[in-house]
Amino acid sequence: MIKNITFSKIIGLTILCFSASFSALSQNTAVNFGELLNSPVTSSGQFSKNDVEELSGLIYDLNPTIFIGSSGYKILGEEAPVKAELSAGNFNRLSTANPGFNNVKLLKMKIESEADFNASFDLSRLQGFENLEYVFVECTFECSTTRIENMFSNIGNLKVLYIISTPE
Predict the structure, then answer these.
(1) What's the distance, CA 119 to chain centroid?
(2) 95 found inside a domain
(3) What percent of the chain has pLDDT over 70?
(4) Mean pLDDT of the chain
(5) How far apart are the first and last CA of the chain?
(6) H or E segment and range at residue 107
(7) DSSP code of residue 141
(8) Residue 129 is part of which domain span?
(9) Number of domains in the chain
(10) Going by C-beta distance under 8 Å and a sequence separation of 6 or more, which residues neighbour residue 3?
(11) Does the keyword Signal apply (predicted)?
(12) What percent of the chain has pLDDT over 90?
C-alpha cells in the first residue's frame, strides 16, 4: 500500500514537472532586436545567423510592403509584399483577409503610446498571413520586454522581436 502511494506521488510529481516545463516553453517571449544584432551568439538558439540577416533585410532594406492604415491599404513596390506595417490602433484590420497579406513574412507594428498596451493582440485572428514568420514591434518610447510579451496572445510558431526607437 505504501509503495503504491509513493509510486503514485512520484508519477504525479513527474507529470506536474513536465507540464510546468511545457507551459514555460509555450509562454510568449520577445527578443530585443538591437541586442540580437550586437550579440555574437544568437539569443538562446532561437535565431540562426541566417535568420538575423534575413530579419535585418526585412526590417531595414527597401522591400515590397503593404501599409495598413485607418483609411485602407497601400502597397509599395511592384512585387507581392513581404512586409506589412501598421500602428497598433489598426491591428483589427488584419482580421479581414487581403491578397496583399499572402506573402508577408514580417509584420511590423508601431507602438506610439502607453494606451497601445491596453489592447490585446490575438495573433490567431490574423487572416491571410500564410507566410508570416516574424512580428516586429517598434516602441517609440521606453517600454519593457514584459509589456511587449503580455500584449500578444496565441503567437504559435511566430517569433516576436522589438526595438526601442526614441528620438534623441
Answers:
(1) 15
(2) yes
(3) 79
(4) 82
(5) 71
(6) strand 106-111
(7) S
(8) 28-164
(9) 1
(10) none
(11) yes
(12) 45
Unique residue bearing C-alpha cell 497579406? 101
Cβ-proximal residues to 70 (8 Å cutoff; 6+ apart), any chain: 89, 90
The closest of 106, 96, 102 to 130, measured between CA atoms, is 102
Torsion of CA 145, 25, 52, 60, to 10 degrees: -40
pLDDT of residue 18: 38
116/102 Cα distance (integer angstroms): 26
**Residues 6 or more apart whose Cβ sits within 8 Å of residue 43:** 31, 35, 36
Give pTM, 2 decimals.
0.78
Query: Is residue 23, in this structure, part of any structural domain at all?
Result: no
CA gyration radius, the chain: 20
pLDDT at position 25 = 37
Residue 149 lies in a domain: yes
pLDDT for 123-146, tens place per residue?
998 999 999 999 999 998 988 889
